[in-house]
Each structure stands twice: as structure tokens, then as C-alpha cells.
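> example.struct
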């Protein structure tokens, strides 16, 4: 649940307090939501009175952040599974 509330899924991250804004930048859900908005709606749109404008660089950065997160989680899972013994 904390991942959802610190992401930009409900509110724009520039309206967050500084601490939540910092958490939002490292939150993988924020990067996922940005990518979904970009590919589903487009790079320039308005919703509930807020204007969004995504550049290709921002979307590429979000994609790379998600790729890094997936890679880190993969290696953590692999490390944990090598420690398991099946009896």
C-alpha cells in the first residue's frame, strides 16, 4: 500500500511534500504509471485540471528505472532460491 500512495497514480508528484516527492522518484510504481499514461493517452494531455507533458527522455528514464528494479529483484530472488534446501 505505501508504494501506491507515494506514486503518481492518484496525484501529481509535484504537489507532494518534499519527502514524498523524493520517495516518488525512486518508487517503481511511479515509473510504471508514467509509462502507461504515455503509451495509453499520449505525451501531452490534461486530466482533472492538471496538464501532463511527458518527453521521450522521461519515458526512457522510467523504462530504464523499471529495468534496473526488475534486474535487482531478479538477482535477489535468485540469491534467495539458491539458499533453499528441499527435503
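> example.seq
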Amino acid at each position: 500500500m505505501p508504494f501506491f500512495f507515494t506514486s503518481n497514480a492518484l496525484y501529481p508528484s509535484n504537489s507532494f511534500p518534499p519527502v514524498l516527492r523524493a520517495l516518488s522518484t525512486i518508487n517503481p510504481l511511479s515509473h510504471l504509471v508514467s509509462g502507461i499514461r504515455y503509451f495509453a493517452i499520449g505525451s501531452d494531455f490534461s486530466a482533472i485540471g492538471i496538464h501532463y507533458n511527458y518527453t521521450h527522455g522521461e519515458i526512457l528514464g522510467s523504462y530504464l528505472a523499471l529495468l534496473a528494479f526488475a534486474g535487482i529483484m531478479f538477482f535477489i530472488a535468485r540469491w534467495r532460491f539458491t539458499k533453499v534446501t528441499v527435503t
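> remarks
The mean pLDDT is 86.
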